[in-house]
Amino acid sequence: MEWRRDEYCISTDRDRLDHAEIHAFLGSSYWAAGIPRAVLDRSIQNSLPFGVYDGPRQVGFARVITDYATFAYVADVFVLPTHRGKGLAKWLMEVIRAHPDLHGLRRWMLVTRDAQDLYRKTGFRELEAPARYMEIVDRQVYAP
């Protein structure tokens, strides 16, 4: 699927994704620092990916981990710094939330350290009952 706005395009075409660009950004991000390329490639293959493009160049990305029936987890959202301030992240989230294969899901989740205001614009809220949620976090999983 594809959506257009001005010179930008959002696409779910896996063949169009620039895995090297995605890896370069995520590999230095606070949430996926050091992620091996093979792990990244597998994560993209097993989720619904969204690329943001300025002409042929990929300038943003997000992926949705989902069962397409009840649950979606939004992950790895970014827009390159040179393309920020143009509303692309908000548009990307609007496209994700409106994707026809993701309608009627009971629960959407994501985790962010610093972009709460962005996600609130598309309906996300702080956890209603945080004590119910549990997690396992291995911060050294990509360490050599």
Describe this structure in words.
The structure is a single chain. The protein is of the alpha+beta class. It is built from 4 helices and 6 strands; from the N terminus they run ββααβββαβα. It has a 6-stranded mixed sheet, with helices on both faces. β4 and β5 form a beta hairpin. The longest helix has 11 residues. The protein is globular, with a radius of gyration of 15 Å. The termini are far apart. 19% of the residues are buried.
Tell the overall outline: globular
Strand content: 25-35%
List the uncertain runs.
Answer: none
Summing up helix and strand content along with how strands pair, one would put the structural category as: alpha+beta
**Terminal-residue CA separation:** 38 Å
Helix content: 10-25%
Number of helices: 4
Helix-strand pattern: EEHHEEEHEH
Number of strands: 6
Main β sheet profile: 6 strands, mixed
Mean pLDDT: 95
Spatial ordering of strands, largest sheet:
1-2-3-4-5-6
Radius of gyration: 15 Å
Helix and strand topology:
Layout: E1 2-5, E2 8-11, H1 19-26, H2 37-45, E3 48-54, E4 57-66, E5 71-79, H3 88-98, E6 107-109, H4 116-120
Parallel strand pairs: 5-6
Antiparallel strand pairs: 1-2, 2-3, 3-4, 4-5
Summarize it.
With 144 residues, the chain is α+β, with helices and mostly antiparallel strands. 23% of the residues lie in helices and 26% in strands.
Give the key terms.
single chain, 144 residues, alpha+beta, 6-stranded mixed beta sheet, 4 helices, 6 strands, 23% helix, 26% strand
